[in-house]
Design a protein that fits this description.
By secondary structure, the chain is α/β, with parallel strands linked by helices. The protein is built from 18 helices and 13 strands. Strands 4-5-13-10-11-12 form a six-stranded mixed beta sheet, sandwiched between helices. The chain has a four-stranded parallel beta sheet with strand order 8-7-6-9, sandwiched between helices.
Length: 428
């Protein structure tokens, strides 16, 4: 089932065979995987997808490979040889009435991608990227990362028996994420610079020495992350929400989710598109500026406490804008203080997420306040990473140790004398 699908340049429209070893067009534009919808229709129906979800087959049960005809349509025996499922996907969709009231909605669902195997949404795209690397016969993979990509790639590479190289900005990656890459055996290289500099370097290294690049400039990473859109609708029994809201860093995730919805509508599996809202930190907001100025994206030097979205020159910005326009979406920005207050709410609801994830809830609150999202809209937010990805920020926030950040939702630990009377006096 490999004929009829191809790679197509987002910028100039040039196309190549689908499994060409390239990440960009000769013009410098990023690439899309363009699928053969006629072939996909032979296999994909809503009933078939629901039956797969109930199956014990390792491909069908995966929250990525269940949708394989629209992600990596290799012949079945071939796919089974190269796929390395790790239980990716199948994350919970939480109904959150308390958080809905906090942000001004009647109903709010949160899709928690931090429940993936390495605790972030990156596992969906990495499952596909690693499978393609194996199919192409490559033995080495690399990425630049603010943390979650490196953790995911290191894990999947280890499972697949591939050598992994991680380029991270020194001192600008949360310890929990750095420890994952190290633990899974990746050679970890700390760059004296920010993520954008690391990204430039890793792309040059991969092109020069033939290492397979697994950042979101790789079009197959986007294909895996599309499964968030597919699974979200399956969670809702194929009901289309009014809005899907998520954080924006390198912009691969909102690109993927928009692409997934557009493809489902092209197949006739849904009859309308949800609107997509991307939330950026105000110190890392190049997409927000480009979207509202209607101009080309201008890179900036990013600065935010939400390290996972601390990216000033996002690779997927053109694809991101395309998806936003197709879904009549929008982009908003929030301060670090708003992100951390929203994080305190998400954590206290018993769900928990890393700071960048909670930009979703902070942005939702702003969009409702501005009457862009209406109280009766059915809204689904995406939480991208687990609460334990950045524990240092949690402790510092609740103890009031973040310079310049007010802690309106703080819940600091309290020192108590070792006596029953003292403990009872402290209980509130």
């Amino acid at each position: 089932m490999t004929s009829g699908w191809q790679l197509v340049c987002v910028q100039c429209g040039t196309s190549w065979p689908a499994l060409s070893l390239r990440y960009r067009c000769d013009c410098g534009g990023t690439l899309d995987v363009q699928h053969d919808f006629a072939k996909a229709r032979e296999h994909l129906t809503l009933d078939a997808l629901d039956q797969r979800r109930a199956s014990s087959d390792f491909l069908d049960r995966s929250g990525v490979w269940r949708f394989r005809e629209l992600i990596l349509p290799l012949e079945d025996p071939t796919l089974r040889q190269v796929a390395v499922p790790r239980g990716e996907g199948n994350t919970h969709l939480y109904e959150c009435p308390g958080l809905a009231r906090e942000v001004g909605l009647q109903q709010l669902f949160l899709k928690h991608e931090g429940e993936n195997p390495t605790a972030s949404f990156k596992d969906r795209g990495m499952a596909v990227g690693i499978a393609v690397a194996r199919h192409l016969g490559l033995e080495r993979v690399a990425c630049a990362s603010t943390g979650n990509t490196s953790a995911s790639m290191a894990s999947y590479a280890a499972l697949a028996g591939l050598k992994a190289y991680v380029f991270v900005p020194k001192g600008k990656i949360a310890a929990g994420k750095l420890s994952q890459a190290i633990a899974y055996g990746a050679q970890t290289l700390q760059i004296q610079g920010d993520f954008d500099e690391a990204m430039t370097l890793v792309e040059e290294v991969c092109n020069q020495v033939g290492i397979y690049l697994l950042n979101s400039v790789n079009p197959f990473r986007i294909e895996g992350q599309k499964a968030i859109a597919f699974e979200l609708l399956q969670d809702l029994q194929w009901r289309v929400p009014d809005w899907v809201v998520l954080p924006g860093g390198n912009l691969g995730n909102n690109t993927a989710i928009a692409k997934g919805f557009i493809e489902l509508m092209a197949l006739g599996l849904i009859d309308r598109l949800p609107r997509i809202a991307v939330v950026q930190a105000s110190g890392a907001n190049p997409l927000h500026t480009a979207f509202h100025s209607r101009k080309e994206l201008v890179p900036i030097r990013a600065e935010t406490i939400a390290s996972a979205i601390k990216i000033g020159n996002p690779v997927s910005w053109r694809k991101s804008l395309r998806g936003l326009h197709a879904t009549q979406g929008t982009v908003t920005e929030v301060t670090d203080a708003e992100i951390l207050d929203a994080k305190a709410l998400v954590d206290a609801a018993g769900i928990g997420a890393e700071p960048a994830s909670c930009a979703t809830v902070a942005g939702l609150r702003r969009l409702v306040r501005e009457a862009i999202i209406h109280p009766k809209d059915l809204v689904c937010g995406v939480l991208t990473g687990h609460v334990l990805k950045d524990t240092g920020v949690i402790v510092d926030y609740h103890q009031g140790q973040l310079k310049g950040i007010p802690t309106g939702k703080a819940n600091p630990p309290q020192v108590v004398e070792s006596s029953l009377e003292a403990l009872l006096a402290k209980l509130n």
